[in-house]
Amino acid sequence: MAADEPDDEFDELDDVDGEEGGPEPEVIIEISGLSLFTHVGVTAAEREVGQRLLLDLRIDVGECDATVTDRIEDTIDYGQVCESANLVAQQRNYKTLERLCAAIADRLLDQYAARTVWVKAAKPEPPLPYPVSEVSVEVLREAE
Fold first, then answer.
1. What is the pTM of this model?
2. Per-residue pLDDT of the chain (144 residues; tens, 9 = 90+)
């Protein structure tokens, strides 16, 4: 192919913009390994001293205009998602990872137009008398 000839393979990709009535792509935003220091635990010592948690977040956005517009305003800003999760984790002390995950999921559903939110919180160094690399809890919430 000569340098001035169009590349048909890439021309076809340019046509995938939803104008022909084709479905828009489904978007899932995923954040892995968000490291936060917070106060979660059943014992008073855990809640007082605090510890590092690792969060994984998955947000099912569904169809998203940013796939066409390429504008951050037309999607969910994952930097803001991290900030929201951190604020929830810092607002109060939680006894269980279950409650923390549910509170984060609820906040994200309230803030963003998402179909589902999945939150996983892991304690990489749980205070157990057994050799455990981590403990974790997952919560899945769906929009009403």
1. 0.81
2. 555 554 544 444 444 444 455 677 899 999 999 999 998 888 887 878 888 999 999 999 999 899 999 999 999 999 999 999 999 999 998 999 999 999 999 999 999 989 999 999 999 988 888 999 999 999 999 998
Amino acid sitting at position 104? I
3-state secondary structure of 37: strand
For the segment(s) 21-142, the CATH number from 3.40.120.10, 3.40.50.1100, 3.10.20.310, 3.30.1130.10 is 3.30.1130.10
Q: How far apart are CA 140 and CA 93, in angstroms?
A: 21
Strand order of the sheet with strand 51-63? 26-38, 51-63, 116-123, 135-142
Q: Is 68:20 a contact under the CB 8 Å cutoff? A: no
| Single-letter code of the amino acid located at 119 | V
From CA 23, how far away is CA 83, in angstroms rounded? 32
Domain coordinates of the chain in residue numbers? 21-142
Tokens at residue 12, please?
């076809």
Give the DSSP per-residue string, 49-92.
H-EEEEEEEEEEEEE-THHHH--GGGS--HHHHHHHHHHHHHHS
